[in-house]
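During the no-cost extension, the postdoctoral fellow (Dr. R.K.) reprocessed legacy sequence entries with the updated structure-token encoder. One reprocessed record is reproduced below for audit purposes.
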Amino acid sequence: MQIEKRLEHSNYPRTNDNALWHATSRQHQLWADGTFMALPFLVNYGALVGDSKQKATAYAEAINQLIIYNTHLQSPNGLLYHAYDESGTQSWVVPGTRHSPESWCRAVGWYAMATTIVLDTVPTTQPNRAKVITILQRLVTAMKKYQDPASGRWFQVVDKGTRSDNWTETSCSSMFTYTISRAVEKGYVAASFKPVATTGYLGRNGDGTGGVLGRISLDSAGHTQLAQICIGTNVGDYAFYIGRPRATNDFHGLGSFLIMSEQLRRTTP
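Re-encoded structure tokens follow.
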């Protein structure tokens, strides 16, 4: 309840157009990752705990936040920039804009998963819900475009997979695979996108040697190891993202992998 009050009653700082800051220490900034930190909580609080007024407020807020964030982060190629700075003072802002230069894969993944959770929770009659479905459709179309043709996964900097130093990252590949599969299942996008999710899960050969499953191995003790997960990351340029350390069994990857697995094991023949 304290978290809900903090978010919903003007106690949390916002941009001038009412978007929740990424953090109180990130003044004036919106990061795509931040949507997952707040919005699934809000809609589930409304659905499971709140009274009718709180439910309506939470649903409207979540939809509105996704729309505002998208307004500031939308890239012309259908993806999302990692972050936006309303003040325009951060070192990572592209000159002449207020957004960061790159589409970092996990930030895009967090936004995509938050969007599916919000759409799954709010009623079909929710005002502006159709706008969010359109946003998701545009994003899934871009995911299909930038899927690695060799591995079926997605790159650390999503739209620059042709660069030799770029690499496919496991947590975002799990997030994208989940999002596409869930969006197909719920009818948010066309059924023709289902093979994109299947490939993200199993790889091009369909046998688990590629895709996200291709990143799993067993150590000498028989424990599962999930590799090539980017550790926690700030906002930066291409070189910054490409140079980030890669961990095995980092929680960002394990969490998204488990969410993806529950979805795909139900929907994959």
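The chain has nine helices and eight strands. The mean pLDDT is 95. The remaining legacy entries will be reprocessed before the final report is submitted.
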